[in-house]
């Protein structure tokens, strides 16, 4: 395997003392709180997520490289990148973004940063299907990493579930912003007509 492998342990979560992880959810937006509750992404889940941060950080370079290898195979996405940025710049941004996903902190600033990224993606014309596909590719790489460190099938399921939940939450934020931006554009067009 190409990624840095940590020895399998009897229990990855116990060995990494996941119950003592410092995490928090400090959200003021009621609807976003409901979204988190709806997918059962709570502080206990964030403790599990945070135990993965060192492993994910150790494998970030490889994860991001594989991510952009897949992205660059799609001519439309390659053109968007070449027009608006560079792989080097975006790779650094994605590494930071993924690292923060596993930080165990969800607050208004976290949400605001995600929404700013979503606005940029919307403005440059990145279609939601490519955004969702990109997150699926990240999840696939995370599953490979998790499979290598989980001590049991149950632990693997739990780790994959929490990684899936945080990525799902990020996708919810982005798709909600896309919808609002589309509605805003349609309202502007109606006012012009």
Lateral strand order in the biggest sheet: 1-2
Strand percent estimate: under 5%
Helix and strand sequence: HEHHHHHEHHH
Tally of alpha and pi helices: 9
Morphology call: globular
User: How large is the radius of gyration?
Assistant: 18 Å
Structural class: mainly alpha
The main sheet comes to:
2 strands, parallel
Amino- and carboxy-terminal Cα gap = 58 Å
> Into which percent range does the helicity of residues fall?
over 70%
**Strands, count:** 2
- Low-confidence segments, ≥5 residues, pLDDT <50? 1-9
Mean pLDDT: 89
Blueprint of the fold:
Elements: H1 12-15, E1 24-26, H2 30-38, H3 43-58, H4 60-71, H5 75-84, H6 87-101, E2 105-107, H7 108-123, H8 128-149, H9 153-192
Parallel strand pairs: 1-2
Provide a descriptive summary of the structure in words.
This protein is mainly alpha-helical and 193 residues long. It contains nine helices and two strands. The chain has a two-stranded parallel ribbon. The chain is globular. Mean pLDDT is 89; it is low at 1-9.
Task: Quickly describe the structure.
The protein has 193 residues and is mostly helical. It has helices at residues 12-15, 30-38, 43-58, 60-71, 75-84, 87-101, 108-123, 128-149, 153-192, and strands at residues 24-26, 105-107. The longest helix has 40 residues, at 153-192.
């Amino acid at each position: 395997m190409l990624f840095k492998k940590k020895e399998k342990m009897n229990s990855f979560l116990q060995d990494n003392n996941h119950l003592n992880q410092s995490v928090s959810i400090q959200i003021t937006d009621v609807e976003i709180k409901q979204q988190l509750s709806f997918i059962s992404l709570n502080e206990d889940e964030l403790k599990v997520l945070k135990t993965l941060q060192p492993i994910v950080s150790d494998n970030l370079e490889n994860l991001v490289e594989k991510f952009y290898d897949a992205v660059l195979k799609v001519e439309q996405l390659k053109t968007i990148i070449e027009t608006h940025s560079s792989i080097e710049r975006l790779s650094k941004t994605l590494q930071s973004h993924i690292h923060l996903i596993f930080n165990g902190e969800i607050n208004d600033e976290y949400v605001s940063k995600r929404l700013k990224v979503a606005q940029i993606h919307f403005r440059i014309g990145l279609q939601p299907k490519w955004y969702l596909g990109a997150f699926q590719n990240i999840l696939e790489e995370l599953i490979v990493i998790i499979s290598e460190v989980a001590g049991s099938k149950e632990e693997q399921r739990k780790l994959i579930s929490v990684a899936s939940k945080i990525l799902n939450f990020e996708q919810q934020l982005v798709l909600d912003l896309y919808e609002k931006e589309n509605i805003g554009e349609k309202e502007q067009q109606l006012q012009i007509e």
